[in-house]
Every structure is written in structure tokens, then in C-alpha cells.
Specification:
ANL_N_sf, ligase, EC 6.2.1.3, 4-stranded mixed sheet, fatty acid metabolism, alpha/beta, about 140 residues
Length: about 140
């Protein structure tokens, strides 16, 4: 239960977590969101829809910035990243097991692209990681 507290304190520039770490963070954020007002829920839902649209455009190489993205980035996404301790993080990665598309899309909707890496400890660790671009799956 202290990972987010540690991340807030350390504020890393790179973070690698197994899929279960990302899933637990997702579950925690989803548990907190229903406690807000109806207006906050609507703004958060709209922001996540725009964030997912933006992330998919970046993933596909289009780099189209949808209307409202900059506003939501300043009102929602930056605050979420700071609350998670990932405000300085330039590269968020996952590995060691398959991660669900739902979890990847959830973080993409918050403008936190989680990049998958592949490696084997038997042969030097990470083999491939998508640094500049990312793909789901």
C-alpha cells in the first residue's frame, strides 16, 4: 500500500512495474473516482475520452491534438500524474507478464502511455522496448 507514497516522494523519471502494479493503481483510482461530485465525474469522463483519442493518434503517428486536450491536460492529467508521483516520469513501462488492453487504455486515457517491454533474465534482461513509439499488444 505504500508504492504510491514512495513514488510521490521519489518522483522518478522512469518507472517499470509488472502488470499487477498497474492494475492495482488502476483499481485504486477507480475506487476513488465515485466519491467526487457529478460535475467532477463528467469532467473526468470527458477528459479520459479526449485523452484516449489523443493517445491513439500519437500511437498511430498522426499527432492530432483533439479539441479540449490542452485544457484537460492542465486540469486533470497533470494532477493525476502528480498524485501518482509520476509527474516527472518520461517513460512508464511494464513487463514480465501480459498486460490487458483495458489497463493500457485506462492509462492512455490519462495521458500516461505505458510501454511494454520484452526480455529474459537468462539473456541479459530487456531485449526490446518501444521508446519513441508504442503499440498496444
Amino acid at each position: 500500500g505504500s508504492l504510491v507514497n514512495t513514488l510521490r516522494e521519489a518522483r522518478p523519471t522512469g518507472f517499470l512495474g509488472v502488470p499487477r502494479v498497474w492494475e492495482k493503481m488502476q483499481e485504486g483510482m477507480k475506487a476513488v473516482s465515485p466519491k467526487g461530485s457529478l460535475l467532477r465525474k463528467r469532467v473526468a469522463d470527458w477528459a479520459k475520452a479526449v485523452g484516449l483519442q489523443y493517445s491513439y493518434s500519437v500511437m498511430n503517428g498522426e499527432n492530432v491534438v483533439p479539441w479540449g486536450f490542452m485544457l484537460y491536460n492542465n486540469l486533470v492529467f497533470k494532477k493525476v500524474r502528480a498524485a501518482l508521483g509520476l509527474d516527472r516520469c518520461r517513460m512508464c513501462c511494464t513487463g514480465a507478464a501480459p498486460i490487458t488492453k483495458e489497463t493500457l487504455e485506462y492509462f492512455m486515457s490519462l495521458n500516461i502511455p505505458v510501454k511494454e517491454l520484452y526480455g529474459m533474465s537468462e539473456s541479459s534482461g530487456p531485449h526490446t522496448v518501444s521508446i519513441d513509439e508504442y503499440r498496444i499488444g
